[in-house]
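User: quick one, fold this
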Amino acid sequence: MKKWKTAFIILACVDLAVVLGLVILLVWASIAPGNKPHAHRLPMTSAPIFTVRTDKDRLVALINDEIDRHPTGNLDFHVAMNDGVDLAGTLKLFGLDIPFTIRFDPEVNDQGNIVLKEKAVKLGRFNLPESEVLRFIRAGGKLPDWVTVNPSQNEIIIALDQVKVGGRFYLKAKTIDLTQDVFEFNVYRVPAKK
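Assistant:
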């Protein structure tokens, strides 16, 4: 059970980083190398370079396309977003397909990171305690350094500011509003090493 949850978290983060990385590369590549005026360089400040905005349908399509492209063996799952972030699918265990669902409420914290508040977990016909599932993920999952699992708080924190896109940029979530269908992320430049 910990594999599918870990895979979902990693895929969602990777998907977001890939989309923003592509946008950054397209903008960067559109400027010819000889035409980069030094006077117009952005100063290295804490202000975002630009903001990326998307909606539920596009974000869900991107996440599910990436899930389909990276099979997870005994897991078959997809993401949906309505009034929460839902992960639903089946887990093959001892030759049986066991249905599962997990519900998260996403939030943005003061640092621009994503906090996934776990609301419900159901495996087969059983409702499981959220903190126990998160303990299994934390103990057995090989998660990236930028993913923190807090079972006592029933949450997973995705530290977007620690995910470097192309080694030169990082992200901060600005708005995640499922009811208004607004997902905004600020893109920042990694400060140059002195």
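User: anything notable?
Assistant: Residues 2-32+46-189 form one domain.
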